[in-house]
Amino acid sequence: MPTDYILFVHGVKTSNREGFERLANTLLDGIQQSVNDNTRVFKPIYFFWGDLGIPLLDRLKKHLAQSSKWPDFWFQDFRTKEILEFVGDAALYLSRHIGSQIVRRFKDEALGMLEGAERGDRLHFVTHSLGSVILFDLLFAGRWEDPQLDRDESTNDIREMVKEIRQTFFGLGNNPSFGLPLASIHTMGSPIALFSLLSINSESTHDLTPQMKTFLRSLYELRQQKLTWRNFAHPGDPIAYPLEGVIPMLLDEAAQFAEIQDVIIDSGNIFLRPFQQRLLPLIWGGEAHGSYWENKLVAQTIGQGISTSPGI
C-alpha cells in the first residue's frame, strides 16, 4: 500500500520539540479524519529547528536590557516576544552559521525517513511561518552550491549534505528522475512573499526561482497534473501574506505547473474589525499566527489535497 509522507516544518516562536510535535499531531488527526480512508497509510516527519538560535537570541535580549534607556521603550514584551523572535529567526536563517546547522539537523533527523520511501509513495509539505522559507531555501537556494563553503572548516561538508538531501526529492539533484515525488504543498501563515524580495536580483545566492522552476516542471512532466498548493492565511496574522499573485511573479511561465490558492481561515475577531487597519490587532496577531494547527478548515483542506493527489 502506498504511503503518504507528510513533512511538518514549524516556524518562528517554536523552541520546544514536544510542543511542536503535539501541534503537528493535532493537525494530522484532523487530516486523517478528513480523508476518512483506512486504507491510506500516513507517515509524519517532524522537522524541528527552533532551538538552534536560542542562545544567540537570549544573548541579544540580555544586552538590550543592559541599555540604560531600555526601560523607556514602549511595547517591550511585543518587541522581545514577537518582533525580535521573528526578525531574529529570519536573520539567523540567512546566516551561514545557523543555516548550516539547519542543513545538518535535516540530514540527521528527516533524511533517513525520506530515503525509506518506495515507488508509488507520495510526499506532502505542511509548513508554518518561516518554516516554508527555510525548507524552500534548503531545497532550491543557490547559496548551498557556493564553492566557498568548502574553504571554511565549519561548512566544508555542507555542499555535499545539501546534494544528498536534494537527491532524495524527485526533480532535484544530479539525477532528477530519481527520488520521492512531491504531491502537494500546504503553507500556513507564510512570509514567502516578503522573502521574494531576495529574488529581485537574479544573481542573489538566496534566489529560489531557477531550481524551483525546474522542480515544478519535472513534477508536471511526471504526472501531467498541476501541483496542488494551498496557502492558508488568518486575516489577523501579520506574518501571513497571499501567494496567488506572488508566485507567478517569481516563476513566470513555470507558475503554470502549480495550482495555487490562498485560503482565508477566519474572518477575524469581530471586536477588532473596527480597528483592523490599525496597531491594536497586531497585539492579537501572535494568537492568530499560531492558530493554523488546530483549525478545522486547514485540516479539511489539506486532507482534500492529499486525497486527490496523484500517484505514479
State the main characteristics.
alpha/beta; six-stranded parallel sheet; single chain
Q: Give the uncertain stretches in residue-range form.
A: 270-285
Given helix and strand content, the structural type is: alpha/beta
Spatial strand arrangement across the major sheet: 2-1-3-4-5-6
Distance between the termini: 13 Å
Radius of gyration: 20 Å
Number of domains: 1
Identify the overall geometry.
Answer: globular
Helix content: 40-55%
Description:
44% of the residues lie in helices and 13% in strands. The two termini are 13 Å apart. It contains twelve helices and six strands. It has a six-stranded parallel beta sheet, sandwiched between helices. The longest helix has 19 residues, at 17-35. The chain is globular, with a radius of gyration of 20 Å. It has one domain (3-307). By secondary structure, it is of the alpha/beta class.
Compact overview of the structure:
With 312 residues, this protein is α/β, with parallel strands linked by helices. The chain is built from twelve helices and six strands.
Mind sketching the topology for me?
Layout: E1 3-9, H1 17-35, E2 41-47, H2 54-65, H3 76-94, H4 96-109, H5 111-115, E3 122-128, H6 130-140, H7 158-167, E4 182-188, H8 192-195, H9 209-223, E5 227-233, H10 246-251, E6 258-264, H11 280-289, H12 296-307
Parallel strand pairs: 1-2, 1-3, 3-4, 4-5, 5-6
